[in-house]
Design brief:
about 240 residues, elongated
Length: about 240
């Protein structure tokens, strides 16, 4: 009996010790922390919210087009399809667009002294992406950086010391960014107090913006590669 009691007590003590060890270990291990600052998290959240809103709008527009197909004749269906193709090309940036908006000019900031001995500043892909995220949040509908039209699949990356947009190297600053908007005044007001102005100033770059009533954006002329798109080419046949 005594031996059984000793065994039980030993098992209980061992179990308690194991639990304490596990608890101590878990307290010693630091939780994985999100190293992004508040501005980055807020910016990403706004981009995701805007993308979700655009998705809902596209779903609604697609349902509207389908209803039109059901209600009209075959000839009218063809006309509706042609109109839809034109609209899709415009939304995808595959056509030239003209309208009112804001033009941003990026110029260097020299901190006095002899300009010839100062290193000429360059624009990093990170700065451009942050600016584009803000512009989309503030109501930009279409954007072009110099002669490069920005679409959803536009790559912006750093290659051999230069920033590339759509596989083309950006020229030296000053650089112009043209933005179309349904409310250019509101967009301009947001740009004037945007975080991007401070971010660019850190890299000795200045943003100046003005409203333009007649801005023309070039069409996107690069091939669009959709690696994840699978096309089902199987032809269904009836039974013999």
């Amino acid at each position: 009996m005594k031996i059984s009691n000793k065994i039980i007590i030993s098992l209980v003590c061992a179990l308690a010790g194991l639990m304490i060890a596990v608890l101590f270990q878990s307290n010693q291990e630091p939780d994985e922390r999100d190293t992004r600052d508040l501005w980055e998290i807020r910016s990403e959240l706004q981009v995701e919210q805007k993308a979700q809103q655009q998705l809902y709008q596209q779903i609604s527009e697609t349902e509207s087009v389908l209803n039109q197909y059901r209600e009209v004749s075959e000839h009218q269906q063809l006309d509706t399809l042609k109109e839809s193709i034109v609209e899709l090309k415009e939304e995808a940036g595959l056509t030239e667009l003209t309208g009112s908006g804001v033009r941003i000019t990026i110029t260097p900031i020299f901190q006095g002294g002899n300009d010839n001995i100062q290193e000429y500043p360059t624009i990093s892909p990170e700065l451009l992406n942050r600016l584009l995220n803000e512009l989309n949040t503030y109501g930009a509908t279409d954007v072009a950086i110099e002669n490069e039209r920005i679409i959803n699949v536009t790559p912006i990356r750093y290659v051999n010391g230069k920033t590339y947009v759509n596989n083309h190297a950006l020229p030296s600053i000053p650089i112009e960014i043209s933005i179309l908007s349904d409310n250019p005044k509101r967009l301009l007001n947001h740009i004037e107090v945007s975080q991007s102005r401070d971010d660019f100033a850190i890299d000795d770059l200045e943003l100046s913006a003005e409203i333009k009533n007649n801005i023309t954006l070039p069409s996107y002329d690069e091939p669009i590669i959709l690696d994840e798109l699978d096309v089902n080419e199987q032809v269904e046949t009836g039974e013999d």
